[in-house]
Amino acid sequence: MEIEGEVGIVLSLDLLSTKLRTFANLFVRIPNENILKNSVKTSSKYKVRRITVDFSIAYKEKIAEAKEVVRKFPKASPLVLEEPKPMTITTSLADSGVLLEGIVWIDRTQLLKAKDVVTAGIKKALDDAGIEIPHPHLTLYLGDPKLLSKKGSAVAPFGARIPKTRILPLKDSHRPKRKNHQ
What we know:
This protein has helices at residues 32-37, 63-72, 111-128; strands at 2-3, 6-13, 17-22, 27-31, 40-41, 48-57, 87-93, 98-107, 154-155, 161-162. It is of the alpha+beta class and 182 residues long. It is a multi-pass membrane protein.
C-alpha cells in the first residue's frame, strides 16, 4: 500500500492512525485524517502488475529494429505474462538518444525479481543485436580551423574572438613565504 509517498504493508488500522512496515523494514505511523485527505494506492488488489523499463538507443539505430528486439525478449522469460501482450513505445527524443519504454505484465508477487530480470534482459537483447545504448555526448565548437590566425586565436561561431590562453607569473606579493631552516 502507498500512503503519502510511504510504501509498505499495513500492520494495523486503529482509531487514530494507520501503521505501515516499509520494504526497508521501517515503521511508519500515518494519521487517519491524512489518509482521508489523500489518495491511497494498493498493489495487492489485482493479481497482475505492469513493469515499465525505460531505455535509450543511439540516434544512428533504427527504432523499429530496437522495438522488435525488445519485443521478442519477454517471450523467453517465464516471469512475463503472455497477456496483456508486452509492448515497446517511443517516448522522447533526448540529447543523446531516442528514449523508449518496454512494458510487460507480471504476477504481482514477482515484482522485484521480474523488474531485475526484465531490465537486464532488455540490456542483453540490445547488446546481442549490436544496438548501441548511448551515453551523453558533448560537441564543442571552436570555430572554423581555417580561420585560425598566426597568433593562435580562433574566431568563435558568432564572430567573438577566443584569445590564446597565457599563464602569467605570480607577483612576489602573491608567492608563499619560505621559512628559513638552519
